[in-house]
Specification:
Blueprint: H1 5-26, H2 36-45, H3 64-75, H4 84-97, E1 101-103, E2 119-121, H5 123-129, H6 137-161, E3 164-167, E4 173-176, H7 182-196, E5 201-205, E6 214-215, H8 217-222, E7 236-240, E8 245-252, H9 260-269, E9 276-283, H10 286-290, E10 300-304, E11 311-314
Parallel strand pairs: 8-9, 9-10
Antiparallel strand pairs: 1-2, 3-4, 5-6, 5-7, 7-8, 10-11
Length: 329
Protein backbone atom coordinates (compact mmCIF):
# COMPACT_ATOMS: atom_id res chain seq x y z
CA UNK A 1 0.00 0.00 0.00
CA UNK A 2 1.22 3.56 -0.70
CA UNK A 3 1.04 4.43 3.01
CA UNK A 4 3.63 1.75 3.69
CA UNK A 5 6.21 3.22 1.31
CA UNK A 6 7.72 5.75 3.76
CA UNK A 7 8.13 3.10 6.44
CA UNK A 8 9.64 0.61 3.97
CA UNK A 9 12.09 3.26 2.78
CA UNK A 10 13.00 4.10 6.37
CA UNK A 11 13.63 0.42 7.10
CA UNK A 12 15.78 0.10 3.96
CA UNK A 13 17.83 3.13 4.98
CA UNK A 14 18.26 1.82 8.51
CA UNK A 15 19.29 -1.62 7.28
CA UNK A 16 21.79 -0.19 4.78
CA UNK A 17 23.33 2.04 7.45
CA UNK A 18 23.78 -0.98 9.76
CA UNK A 19 25.36 -3.02 6.93
CA UNK A 20 27.80 -0.21 6.18
CA UNK A 21 28.81 0.26 9.81
CA UNK A 22 29.36 -3.50 10.07
CA UNK A 23 31.52 -3.46 6.92
CA UNK A 24 33.63 -0.63 8.32
CA UNK A 25 34.01 -2.55 11.58
CA UNK A 26 35.20 -5.58 9.62
CA UNK A 27 37.68 -3.30 7.84
CA UNK A 28 39.11 -2.48 11.28
CA UNK A 29 38.09 1.17 11.47
CA UNK A 30 37.67 2.61 14.96
CA UNK A 31 34.37 3.82 16.44
CA UNK A 32 34.76 7.35 15.08
CA UNK A 33 35.38 6.10 11.53
CA UNK A 34 32.43 3.73 11.48
CA UNK A 35 29.84 6.06 12.96
CA UNK A 36 26.76 7.28 11.12
CA UNK A 37 28.50 10.15 9.32
CA UNK A 38 31.35 7.92 8.14
CA UNK A 39 28.92 5.24 6.96
CA UNK A 40 26.84 7.73 4.97
CA UNK A 41 30.01 9.19 3.47
CA UNK A 42 31.11 5.75 2.27
CA UNK A 43 27.67 5.06 0.79
CA UNK A 44 27.83 8.36 -1.12
CA UNK A 45 31.23 7.43 -2.53
CA UNK A 46 29.81 4.07 -3.61
CA UNK A 47 26.72 5.75 -5.09
CA UNK A 48 24.77 3.16 -3.14
CA UNK A 49 21.11 3.89 -2.45
CA UNK A 50 19.04 2.02 0.18
CA UNK A 51 17.47 -0.51 -2.19
CA UNK A 52 20.45 -1.02 -4.54
CA UNK A 53 22.46 -4.22 -4.19
CA UNK A 54 26.01 -4.00 -2.90
CA UNK A 55 27.03 -5.80 -6.08
CA UNK A 56 25.99 -2.65 -8.00
CA UNK A 57 28.19 -0.26 -6.02
CA UNK A 58 29.96 2.31 -8.22
CA UNK A 59 33.02 4.55 -7.96
CA UNK A 60 31.99 8.14 -8.79
CA UNK A 61 34.37 11.06 -8.35
CA UNK A 62 32.82 13.20 -5.62
CA UNK A 63 33.83 16.18 -3.54
CA UNK A 64 32.54 16.75 -0.02
CA UNK A 65 29.61 18.96 -1.10
CA UNK A 66 28.28 16.38 -3.62
CA UNK A 67 28.65 13.77 -0.85
CA UNK A 68 26.43 15.90 1.42
CA UNK A 69 23.93 16.33 -1.40
CA UNK A 70 23.78 12.57 -2.06
CA UNK A 71 23.22 11.76 1.62
CA UNK A 72 20.34 14.25 1.80
CA UNK A 73 18.68 12.98 -1.39
CA UNK A 74 19.17 9.23 -0.88
CA UNK A 75 19.01 8.91 2.90
CA UNK A 76 17.07 11.98 4.03
CA UNK A 77 19.84 13.15 6.35
CA UNK A 78 20.77 16.77 5.85
CA UNK A 79 24.16 18.10 6.86
CA UNK A 80 24.66 21.86 6.98
CA UNK A 81 27.27 23.32 4.61
CA UNK A 82 29.45 24.19 7.60
CA UNK A 83 29.78 20.46 8.42
CA UNK A 84 32.03 19.89 5.39
CA UNK A 85 35.10 19.97 7.63
CA UNK A 86 33.52 17.40 9.95
CA UNK A 87 32.95 14.97 7.08
CA UNK A 88 36.43 15.65 5.74
CA UNK A 89 38.14 15.22 9.13
CA UNK A 90 36.02 12.43 10.65
CA UNK A 91 35.61 10.21 7.60
CA UNK A 92 37.33 11.12 4.34
CA UNK A 93 40.74 11.83 5.89
CA UNK A 94 40.91 8.43 7.60
CA UNK A 95 39.56 6.58 4.57
CA UNK A 96 42.30 8.14 2.45
CA UNK A 97 45.00 7.28 5.00
CA UNK A 98 43.77 3.68 5.13
CA UNK A 99 43.82 3.37 1.33
CA UNK A 100 40.04 2.97 1.11
CA UNK A 101 39.69 6.20 -0.88
CA UNK A 102 41.86 7.93 -3.47
CA UNK A 103 42.25 11.71 -3.41
CA UNK A 104 42.15 13.45 -6.81
CA UNK A 105 42.81 10.34 -8.93
CA UNK A 106 41.70 12.36 -11.97
CA UNK A 107 44.43 14.96 -11.36
CA UNK A 108 47.14 13.94 -8.85
CA UNK A 109 48.74 17.39 -9.21
CA UNK A 110 45.65 19.17 -7.90
CA UNK A 111 46.54 20.99 -4.65
CA UNK A 112 45.44 19.30 -1.45
CA UNK A 113 43.49 22.37 -0.35
CA UNK A 114 41.81 22.94 -3.73
CA UNK A 115 38.08 23.55 -3.75
CA UNK A 116 37.94 21.10 -6.68
CA UNK A 117 39.29 18.18 -4.63
CA UNK A 118 37.43 14.93 -5.28
CA UNK A 119 37.57 11.42 -3.85
CA UNK A 120 36.99 7.96 -5.30
CA UNK A 121 36.78 4.48 -3.86
CA UNK A 122 40.01 2.53 -4.42
CA UNK A 123 39.50 -0.31 -6.99
CA UNK A 124 40.42 -3.21 -4.69
CA UNK A 125 38.15 -1.80 -1.97
CA UNK A 126 35.31 -1.44 -4.49
CA UNK A 127 35.72 -5.08 -5.56
CA UNK A 128 35.60 -6.14 -1.91
CA UNK A 129 32.57 -4.05 -0.93
CA UNK A 130 30.58 -5.41 -3.85
CA UNK A 131 30.70 -8.75 -1.97
CA UNK A 132 29.12 -7.47 1.26
CA UNK A 133 26.36 -9.86 2.36
CA UNK A 134 27.47 -12.70 0.06
CA UNK A 135 29.15 -16.01 0.81
CA UNK A 136 32.31 -14.65 -0.81
CA UNK A 137 32.65 -11.80 1.71
CA UNK A 138 34.63 -13.55 4.51
CA UNK A 139 37.41 -14.87 2.25
CA UNK A 140 37.52 -11.66 0.17
CA UNK A 141 37.80 -9.61 3.37
CA UNK A 142 40.64 -11.80 4.63
CA UNK A 143 42.58 -11.39 1.38
CA UNK A 144 41.96 -7.65 1.26
CA UNK A 145 43.17 -7.09 4.84
CA UNK A 146 46.29 -9.13 4.08
CA UNK A 147 47.05 -6.94 1.07
CA UNK A 148 46.09 -3.60 2.60
CA UNK A 149 49.65 -2.47 3.38
CA UNK A 150 50.83 -3.19 -0.16
CA UNK A 151 47.82 -1.27 -1.51
CA UNK A 152 48.67 1.71 0.70
CA UNK A 153 52.31 1.51 -0.37
CA UNK A 154 51.35 1.61 -4.05
CA UNK A 155 49.02 4.57 -3.49
CA UNK A 156 51.80 6.41 -1.66
CA UNK A 157 54.25 5.60 -4.46
CA UNK A 158 51.93 7.08 -7.09
CA UNK A 159 51.30 10.11 -4.89
CA UNK A 160 55.04 10.65 -4.48
CA UNK A 161 55.51 10.64 -8.25
CA UNK A 162 53.27 13.71 -8.41
CA UNK A 163 55.12 15.59 -5.67
CA UNK A 164 57.33 18.59 -6.46
CA UNK A 165 61.02 17.80 -5.81
CA UNK A 166 63.07 20.77 -4.61
CA UNK A 167 66.85 20.89 -4.36
CA UNK A 168 68.10 23.14 -1.56
CA UNK A 169 71.28 25.21 -1.88
CA UNK A 170 73.20 22.75 0.31
CA UNK A 171 72.34 19.89 -2.06
CA UNK A 172 69.70 18.27 0.17
CA UNK A 173 66.22 17.69 -1.18
CA UNK A 174 62.65 18.14 -0.02
CA UNK A 175 59.42 17.02 -1.72
CA UNK A 176 56.40 19.32 -1.70
CA UNK A 177 52.78 18.37 -2.26
CA UNK A 178 51.64 18.73 -5.88
CA UNK A 179 50.11 21.78 -7.50
CA UNK A 180 49.14 25.13 -6.10
CA UNK A 181 52.00 27.50 -5.36
CA UNK A 182 54.58 24.77 -4.87
CA UNK A 183 56.01 24.87 -8.43
CA UNK A 184 56.62 28.58 -7.77
CA UNK A 185 58.26 27.77 -4.43
CA UNK A 186 60.54 25.36 -6.30
CA UNK A 187 61.53 28.21 -8.65
CA UNK A 188 62.21 30.49 -5.66
CA UNK A 189 64.58 27.97 -4.10
CA UNK A 190 66.31 26.84 -7.28
CA UNK A 191 66.41 30.11 -9.28
CA UNK A 192 65.85 33.12 -7.04
CA UNK A 193 68.18 32.03 -4.24
CA UNK A 194 71.28 31.33 -6.39
CA UNK A 195 70.81 34.65 -8.23
CA UNK A 196 69.96 37.00 -5.37
CA UNK A 197 71.05 35.22 -2.17
CA UNK A 198 74.01 33.04 -3.22
CA UNK A 199 75.24 30.86 -0.40
CA UNK A 200 72.10 31.62 1.58
CA UNK A 201 70.48 29.15 3.97
CA UNK A 202 66.88 28.14 3.34
CA UNK A 203 65.48 28.23 6.86
CA UNK A 204 61.80 27.52 6.21
CA UNK A 205 59.50 26.21 3.49
CA UNK A 206 55.75 25.95 4.03
CA UNK A 207 53.49 23.39 2.38
CA UNK A 208 49.72 22.91 2.35
CA UNK A 209 50.11 19.31 3.55
CA UNK A 210 52.80 20.07 6.12
CA UNK A 211 53.25 23.64 7.33
CA UNK A 212 56.78 22.84 8.54
CA UNK A 213 57.94 20.60 5.71
CA UNK A 214 61.38 22.23 6.07
CA UNK A 215 62.50 24.14 9.15
CA UNK A 216 65.99 24.98 10.43
CA UNK A 217 65.09 25.70 14.03
CA UNK A 218 68.66 26.24 15.23
CA UNK A 219 69.33 28.80 12.50
CA UNK A 220 66.19 30.74 13.43
CA UNK A 221 67.06 30.62 17.10
CA UNK A 222 70.55 31.97 16.41
CA UNK A 223 68.87 34.95 14.71
CA UNK A 224 66.69 35.59 17.74
CA UNK A 225 63.50 34.35 16.10
CA UNK A 226 60.91 31.93 17.49
CA UNK A 227 57.97 31.01 15.27
CA UNK A 228 54.61 30.11 16.75
CA UNK A 229 52.95 27.28 14.82
CA UNK A 230 49.74 29.34 14.76
CA UNK A 231 51.48 32.35 13.19
CA UNK A 232 51.01 33.27 9.54
CA UNK A 233 54.52 32.46 8.38
CA UNK A 234 55.79 33.54 4.93
CA UNK A 235 56.04 30.75 2.36
CA UNK A 236 59.85 30.78 2.24
CA UNK A 237 62.46 32.21 4.63
CA UNK A 238 66.08 32.51 3.51
CA UNK A 239 69.05 33.81 5.52
CA UNK A 240 71.46 35.54 3.16
CA UNK A 241 74.42 35.06 5.47
CA UNK A 242 76.93 37.11 3.45
CA UNK A 243 74.97 40.31 4.11
CA UNK A 244 73.02 39.10 7.15
CA UNK A 245 69.63 39.63 5.53
CA UNK A 246 66.56 37.56 6.27
CA UNK A 247 64.46 37.26 3.11
CA UNK A 248 60.76 36.79 3.83
CA UNK A 249 59.19 35.53 0.60
CA UNK A 250 55.53 35.11 -0.28
CA UNK A 251 54.76 32.88 -3.30
CA UNK A 252 51.62 34.27 -4.93
CA UNK A 253 49.46 32.37 -7.40
CA UNK A 254 46.02 33.56 -6.30
CA UNK A 255 46.39 35.64 -3.13
CA UNK A 256 48.76 36.86 -0.43
CA UNK A 257 51.26 39.44 -1.75
CA UNK A 258 53.33 41.56 0.62
CA UNK A 259 50.98 44.54 0.82
CA UNK A 260 51.17 47.26 3.46
CA UNK A 261 49.23 45.20 6.02
CA UNK A 262 51.30 42.07 5.43
CA UNK A 263 54.58 43.99 5.63
CA UNK A 264 53.54 45.35 9.03
CA UNK A 265 52.55 41.82 10.19
CA UNK A 266 55.88 40.38 9.13
CA UNK A 267 57.79 43.25 10.73
CA UNK A 268 56.03 42.51 14.04
CA UNK A 269 56.40 38.72 13.69
CA UNK A 270 60.16 39.05 13.21
CA UNK A 271 60.72 41.90 15.67
CA UNK A 272 64.04 41.44 17.44
CA UNK A 273 65.59 39.53 14.54
CA UNK A 274 69.39 39.94 14.42
CA UNK A 275 69.30 40.16 10.61
CA UNK A 276 67.87 42.88 8.40
CA UNK A 277 64.47 42.01 6.95
CA UNK A 278 63.79 41.95 3.21
CA UNK A 279 60.22 41.51 1.98
CA UNK A 280 59.74 39.73 -1.36
CA UNK A 281 56.62 38.82 -3.32
CA UNK A 282 57.16 36.16 -5.99
CA UNK A 283 54.92 35.61 -9.02
CA UNK A 284 55.02 33.03 -11.82
CA UNK A 285 54.45 35.51 -14.65
CA UNK A 286 54.04 39.23 -15.32
CA UNK A 287 50.42 38.56 -16.19
CA UNK A 288 49.77 36.95 -12.79
CA UNK A 289 51.35 40.01 -11.13
CA UNK A 290 49.14 42.57 -12.87
CA UNK A 291 46.09 42.33 -10.64
CA UNK A 292 48.26 42.74 -7.52
CA UNK A 293 50.41 45.68 -8.62
CA UNK A 294 48.36 48.30 -6.79
CA UNK A 295 48.65 46.30 -3.54
CA UNK A 296 52.41 45.72 -3.39
CA UNK A 297 53.95 47.46 -0.38
CA UNK A 298 56.58 50.15 -0.73
CA UNK A 299 59.96 49.13 0.62
CA UNK A 300 59.48 45.62 -0.72
CA UNK A 301 60.67 43.62 -3.72
CA UNK A 302 59.00 41.60 -6.49
CA UNK A 303 60.49 38.64 -8.33
CA UNK A 304 58.92 36.97 -11.38
CA UNK A 305 59.82 33.37 -12.19
CA UNK A 306 59.51 33.78 -15.95
CA UNK A 307 62.17 36.55 -15.77
CA UNK A 308 64.36 35.01 -13.07
CA UNK A 309 67.39 37.29 -13.51
CA UNK A 310 65.49 40.51 -12.72
CA UNK A 311 63.90 42.14 -9.72
CA UNK A 312 61.34 44.92 -9.36
CA UNK A 313 62.12 47.28 -6.48
CA UNK A 314 59.26 49.25 -5.00
CA UNK A 315 60.83 52.59 -4.00
CA UNK A 316 64.23 52.22 -5.57
CA UNK A 317 66.28 53.71 -2.74
CA UNK A 318 68.51 50.65 -2.75
CA UNK A 319 68.94 47.32 -4.51
CA UNK A 320 67.48 44.37 -2.60
CA UNK A 321 68.23 45.16 1.00
CA UNK A 322 66.60 45.95 4.32
CA UNK A 323 65.28 49.46 4.90
CA UNK A 324 66.08 51.46 8.04
CA UNK A 325 62.90 50.49 9.86
CA UNK A 326 63.78 46.81 9.78
CA UNK A 327 67.51 46.85 10.41
CA UNK A 328 68.64 44.88 13.48
CA UNK A 329 68.94 47.02 16.57
Amino acid sequence: MPADKPSRLAESRKRRLAETSAALTALQFGPKQRNETAAYTLLALLDLRPNVSWADAQAPLRGVTPVIDFIAEAYGVRYAPNTRETIRDDAVKFFVEAGLLLRNPDDPKRPTNSGKTVYQIEPAALALLRKVGTLDWPLALQKYLASRESIKHEIARKRDLARVPVKLPDGSKVALSPGGQNPLIKAIIEQFCPAFAPGGVVIYIGDTENKFVHLETAELTSLGVTLDSAAKIPDVIVHYTKKNWLLLIEAVTSAGPVDGKRRKELKELFAGCKAGLVFVTAFETRRSMQSFLSHIAWESEVWIAEDPDHMIHFNGERFLGPYPDVLPK
